[in-house]
Amino acid sequence: MNQQNGEEIQSLQRLKRLSDGIFMLAMTLMVLQFDLPDVSAEMSSRQIKEFLIAQLPALYIYLGTFILIAFYWFSNLQQFTHYKKQIPFIYGLIYCH
Q: Mind telling me which residue stretches traverse the membrane in this protein (predicted)?
């Protein structure tokens, strides 16, 4: 029974790592929404300022989405603390799907 409990905990840790990786990947890929300036041409300080101001809507969306995903991630981590308390039941649910 003790060996089975250890295997269940290990399976739960693997699932937690997988979900952490998925959240990390989602949060990292959001950076791709930003445009990059044309580096071949020199930009004046006015052009740089205009470019950055044009990026503000994307920055607001990025920050909002980042915070939303962070809340979901935190909630997911909290759920795993509850899963550890009910490993036999959750272990059965994980492998039934």
A: 21-39, 51-74
